[in-house]
Amino acid sequence: MDGFPVKMSEAVCLGASLTLSGICYYLYRKNRTTANKLDDAPHFTIDGKLKDILKVTPGACLQYAVIEGAVQPVAEPLTSPFQKEFVGVLQKFMLREHRLVWNGLSRTWTDSERVLHQRVNAVPFVLVGSNDTAVRVLCPLQASGVHMETTHEKFHQVNYGLGDIIGQYLSGEKLKGQLETEEMLKVGTTLTGVGELILDTDGILILRPPSNGSKYFLSITDFDTLLGEQESTAVWWKVLAITSALVGAAVILLVGRRFYQQLKVRWEREKERREFERLQAENPRARALVTGPEALQDGEEELLENACVICLTQPRNCILLDCGHVCCCHSCYQALPQRRCPICRQSISRVVPIYHV
Ligand SMILES: [Zn+2]
Ligand SMILES: [Zn+2]
C-alpha cells in the first residue's frame, strides 16, 4: 500500500506509448514541414525566360523551386538488357531471394526476403522544356519520390527432389526462388523535380539537392500527387502520435484512479481508528482492556482466555459487525489485509469497542 502504486507492465506501457508518441510527432512535424515547403515552392516552366529570371535573382539561385520536363540523356543512354527498346538514364537491377521460414509461434510458414545483389547505373541527363531549354539534373540518386518504373520482373522458381523437401521440413526453411527486377527512368518520361535551381557561370541551368536542408524530389507523378502523398503521410503520423498519446493518458488515469482509491481506504481506516478511540475514551473499563498492564491486575488467566486470536497478547477489545464476533484486538483488526472477520469471513461493516460492566 505504501509508495506510488505503478505496476511494472504499466510503467513499460506508459514509457513505450510516450516514446512512440514523441517519435510519431517528430515525423509528423518533419512531413508537415516538407509538405508546407512544397506548397510554398514557386513553379517554373522550362523555357527561354527561366535563364532571364535566374539572371536577375540574387546569387542566380532559387532555393526551392518546382520544374517539370521530359528526360533526355546528355550523352549515350542506358539500354535494358531484357528489352532492347527500353532506353533510360537511371537503371537499377535487383536480385532478391525469397524463403519460407517456419514460425513456431504462429505455426505457419512466413515469407522472408533478402537482397542478394543490387546495382545502380546512371548517366547524366537533363529535363527539357519548350524551345529546347534544358535543366541539368544533379545527384538524382539522392532524391526522394518515385522516379523509376519497373521494366523487367522475373521469378526463378526452385525445383526440389523428395530428399530436399524432407530436409526443409527438418530445418524449418524453404527456398522459394529468386526474384530478378529491373527499374528504369526511361528517356522521354515527364519528370517533376523539386530542388535548388541555379544558373552556373557557363550559363547552364542546374537542378540540385537544396543546400538549405529541404527535401529533394524527383517524381514521375505530377506535382499535385507528390504534394498529396506528403500530406497524407503527415496525417498518418499525426493520427499515430495522437493514438499513442491517448494510450499513455489512459495508463496515467488508471494509475491515478487506483492511487486515489488506496488513499480513500487509508482515510477511512484513520477515521475509524479515531472513532474507536473516542468510544474507548468515553468508557473507562474499555480503556483498561486496551492499555493492558491494568488488565493484568485481574489475573493472567483471564487475559489468556480473553487474548486476541491473532496476536495472542492483547485482550480482545472490539466487536466486529454485522457478524458480532469478539475475536481480536483493535490493532490486529486494523492490520487485516481485507475487511473480513478472521473467524467467519463475513465482511465487516463497522467495528465498536467492547464494554465490560
Ligand atoms: Zn491482536
Ligand atoms: Zn465473524
TrEMBL record:
<keyword id="KW-0496">Mitochondrion</keyword>
<dbReference type="Pfam" id="PF12483">
    <property type="entry name" value="GIDE"/>
</dbReference>
<keyword id="KW-0833">Ubl conjugation pathway</keyword>
<keyword id="KW-0863">Zinc-finger</keyword>
<keyword id="KW-1000">Mitochondrion outer membrane</keyword>
<keyword id="KW-0862">Zinc</keyword>
<dbReference type="GO" id="GO:0005741">
    <property type="term" value="C:mitochondrial outer membrane"/>
</dbReference>
<keyword id="KW-0479">Metal-binding</keyword>
<dbReference type="GO" id="GO:0016567">
    <property type="term" value="P:protein ubiquitination"/>
</dbReference>
<dbReference type="GO" id="GO:0008270">
    <property type="term" value="F:zinc ion binding"/>
</dbReference>
<keyword id="KW-0808">Transferase</keyword>
<keyword id="KW-0436">Ligase</keyword>
<feature type="transmembrane region" description="Helical">
    <location>
        <begin position="235"/>
        <end position="256"/>
    </location>
</feature>
<dbReference type="InterPro" id="IPR001841">
    <property type="entry name" value="Znf_RING"/>
</dbReference>
<feature type="domain" description="RING-type">
    <location>
        <begin position="308"/>
        <end position="345"/>
    </location>
</feature>
<dbReference type="InterPro" id="IPR013083">
    <property type="entry name" value="Znf_RING/FYVE/PHD"/>
</dbReference>
<dbReference type="GO" id="GO:0061630">
    <property type="term" value="F:ubiquitin protein ligase activity"/>
</dbReference>
<keyword id="KW-0472">Membrane</keyword>
<dbReference type="Pfam" id="PF13920">
    <property type="entry name" value="zf-C3HC4_3"/>
</dbReference>
<keyword id="KW-1133">Transmembrane helix</keyword>
<dbReference type="InterPro" id="IPR051652">
    <property type="entry name" value="MDM2_MDM4_MUL1"/>
</dbReference>
<keyword id="KW-0812">Transmembrane</keyword>
<dbReference type="InterPro" id="IPR022170">
    <property type="entry name" value="MUL1-like"/>
</dbReference>
<protein>
    <recommendedName>
        <fullName>RING-type E3 ubiquitin transferase</fullName>
        <ecNumber>2.3.2.27</ecNumber>
    </recommendedName>
</protein>
